[in-house]
Amino acid sequence: MSPRRRVQPGEQPLLPQGMPKTSLWSRMSLRQWKLPRQWWKPSRQWVMPLAMTLAVLVAAGAITASSFILVNHRKHHELAMKEVDVLGFARSFMTSFTSLDPFHANAYVDRILANGTGDFAKQYRDKVNEVLLNVAQAEPTKGTALDAGVERWNDDGSASVLVATEVTYKTPDGKQTIESTNRWVLTAQREGDQWKISSLQQVI
To answer: Do 98 and 165 meet the contact criterion of CB atoms below 8 Å apart?
Structure first.
């Protein structure tokens, strides 16, 4: 402790003589709020119900999201498998359609008609004699489907498919091989468990 210091006569005191007057707020009787100890900790009476409610909501949300993802995935998978199926059919048909065998003209026509439906089948039947004559007089050709892709799915469930083909054949003297590339747009219609061609057009 520091030693006491005496105030000399005529010297100003270090502390004021009078105490400061009380303010209005210090004279007012204010109610004191008494909070329970550890008031910030939640009561166990409502913690468990709240936790259970949140758990149920989270679980319900997870189940809904999982169901949506599963349904979406299934739709995409079914569409992908359907696309693979129709493209395989389109490739096979165009390979057969562009492969001419003059020694088996009737078998060629029967094969094409078996895969036709709608307007395509009707037009082909109407010109079957003309087709038979042209195939019988043509040089043998080997057709190949180079590529195929679904252009769009129509409202009736049919698919518009774009196919690129290559036809290889030899000149009548057999000395030269000629290759011709073409593009086709066909419409494949599902009938039962089989795809069939309802329209076929060459893209120029």
So the answer is: yes
- The separation between CA 43 and the C-alpha centre of its own chain, rounded to angstroms, equals 48
Rg (CA), the chain: 46
- Domain ranges within the chain, ordered by starting residue: 55-203
- Identify the CATH homologous superfamily for domain 55-203: VirB8 protein (3.10.450.230)
Which contacts qualify for 62-68: CB closer than 8 Å, 24 or more apart? none
Rounded to 5 degrees, φ, ψ at 18 are -105, 150
Where residue 177 falls (left for φ over 0; alpha for ψ -120 to 50; beta otherwise) is: beta
pTM greater than the 0.85 cutoff: no
Distance (Å, whole) CA 107 – CA 113: 10
pLDDT tens by residue, 83-125: 999 999 999 999 999 999 999 999 999 999 999 999 999 999 9
Q: pLDDT, tens digit, for every residue of 129-145?
A: 999 999 999 999 999 99
- pLDDT by residue (tens digit) across 130-189? 999 999 999 999 999 999 999 999 999 999 999 999 999 998 888 899 999 999 999 999
